[in-house]
Amino acid sequence: MTLLVEDILEQVKHKINSNRVHINTDFELELPNILCDETQMSIVFKNLITNSIEATLNEGIVSIFVRKEDTNLLIKITDTGIGMSKERLAKLGEPFFNLKEKGTGIGLMVCYRIIWQYNGSIFVESEENKGTTIEVRIPFLDYM
């Protein structure tokens, strides 16, 4: 998973630079295996990381942590972006709900469905003008 996230960061480097965002990473190196499709995980994390970068401007920070937490792989993405109201937060993952001017509003819905397919979960916490934290948990293969 660490290599996948590093590859995604390389793919979105132009967005990182154009939004003047600082990226912090903290990756645990030795992690048990998870059962997942790499292409699907790439879709999920490219979407989540891109959303965080786009919500964070002018020297803001996006932090990405990958580590073991009990029987799960935890991927945590935190940004110092614009954040969301409680009303908007409650609608995340609904089909065609979109926070951006461009886009279809199905990206996050697809992320939720992919993670649920692997018995995982996505938890989002946000505060307007403070930022957003997204926690993705996927069970390790030995615990499924």
Question: Key terms for this structure?
Answer:
alpha+beta, Heat Shock Protein 90
Annotation field: number of helices: 5
When the domains are counted, the total is 1
Spans of at least 5 consecutive residues whose pLDDT stays below 50 are: none
CATH topology: Heat Shock Protein 90
Percentage of residues in helical conformation: 25-40%
Strand content: 25-35%
Shape estimate? globular
**What structural category do the secondary elements indicate?**
alpha+beta
The CATH superfamily label reads: Histidine kinase-like ATPase, C-terminal domain
Q: What is the CATH class?
A: Alpha Beta
Q: How many beta-strand runs?
A: 5
As a whole number of angstroms, the C-alpha radius of gyration is 15 Å
Task: Describe the 3D structure.
With 144 residues, this protein is an alpha+beta fold. It has a single domain, classed as Heat Shock Protein 90 (2-Layer Sandwich). Helices cover 35% and strands 27% of the residues. The protein has 5 helices and 5 strands. The chain has a 5-stranded mixed β-sheet with strand order 1-2-3-5-4, with helices on one face. It is globular, with a radius of gyration of 15 Å. The relative contact order is 0.20.
Give the SSE map:
Layout: H1 2-11, H2 13-18, E1 22-27, H3 38-55, E2 61-69, E3 72-79, H4 86-91, H5 107-117, E4 121-127, E5 131-139
Parallel strand pairs: 1-2
Antiparallel strand pairs: 2-3, 3-5, 4-5
Helix pairs in contact: 1-3, 3-5
Summarize the structure.
One of its GO terms (molecular function) is ATP binding. By secondary structure, this protein is of the alpha+beta class.
